[in-house]
Design goal:
By secondary structure, this protein is α/β, with parallel strands linked by helices. The chain has six helices and eleven strands. It folds into two domains: 4-146 and 208-247, 3-Layer(aba) Sandwich (Rossmann fold), CATH 3.40.50.150; 152-207, CAC2371-like domains (S-adenosyl-L-methionine-dependent methyltransferases, Single Sheet). It has helices spanning 17-20, 27-38, 56-61, 74-83, 118-131, 211-221, and strands at 46-50, 66-71, 88-91, 103-108, 132-140, 152-159, 165-173, 181-191, 197-207, 224-228, 243-247. The radius of gyration is 18 Å and the shape is globular.
Length: 253
């Protein structure tokens, strides 16, 4: 696994995260996940968020729930604490962390993009199973799968009340098709309130596992597994994201 916490974006650039990737951009994904929670059949009152990053998904899901937010990067956890002071924050590796308690739901949003080997994927799914109570569910929301990935370019950014501005350009490619990982090349342009400008390039190696790999890994850990593609956000708009759901058997009545 290329440690997400080791990239500059999640270390020295972490204080820029709310400007580079504003929280509003996570509203649609959070609506999709919230809909899955609402349809779980049992109330989802406690959630473990593996790889919470800056806490932007948790911001939309925490109302009425207790949430424990885990991330490898101390700098990103500091950003999330500012946004979600009412949530528990724990520094740890999603592959190995064990909190010794279980939750109604375990969530792993786009931090799972940094899983680039079958071993890492299996480890994170086992972590989710260990923390998922009987009858609970685990939700995995990667940005890419082998079937849905398309090379391309994009970008984004924003500004904040201090006068800071940030933008980024992104180029994604698949250098070795079929090997389970892709490359995302970024260029971050950061303009501070005093007018100082920095340009920071960085390449991230990301996973793009097949649908069958996700489902078989969930089942091997003990989950009943399903994939939802073409799901809809809270406004009824279609999403290309594939979300993988694992349900833990509730056991005897």
């Amino acid at each position: 696994m290329a440690e997400a916490g080791g990239y500059s974006l999640y270390r020295e650039l972490a204080p820029w995260w709310p400007v580079i990737s504003p929280s509003v951009e996570y509203a649609d994904d959070a609506a999709l996940i919230g809909g899955i929670f609402a349809a779980a059949g049992r109330p989802v009152r406690s959630v473990l968020d593996l790889g919470c990053g800056g806490g932007h998904v948790a911001l939309y899901l925490k109302d009425g729930r207790s949430m424990a937010l885990v991330d490898l990067s101390a700098e990103m956890l500091a950003v999330s604490r500012q946004l979600n002071p009412d949530c528990e924050h724990v520094q740890g590796d999603m592959r190995t962390i064990r909190l010794g308690r279980q939750f109604d739901a375990v969530l792993a949003h786009d931090a799972v993009d940094y899983l680039t080997s079958q071993e890492d994927l299996s480890s994170v799914v086992r972590t989710a199973f260990a923390h998922c109570r009987p009858g609970g569910l685990a939700v995995f929301a990667p940005d890419h799968t082998a079937e849905t990935f398309r090379a391309g370019t994009g970008g984004g950014g924003g500004h904040d009340g201090t006068g800071r501005q940030a933008s980024f350009r992104e180029r994604t490619s698949d250098p070795v098709p079929g090997d389970g990982w892709i490359l995302a090349e970024y260029e971050f342009t950061l303009r501070d309130a005093d007018g100082t400008v920095r340009v920071v390039p960085e390449a991230h190696r990301l996973g793009a596992f097949s649908r069958d790999t996700w489902l078989s890994t969930l089942r091997a850990a003990g989950f009943a597994a399903e994939a939802r593609a073409g799901v809809h956000d809270g406004n009824g708009a279609a999403s290309a994201k594939v979300i993988f759901i694992g349900r833990r058997d509730p056991g005897p009545p």
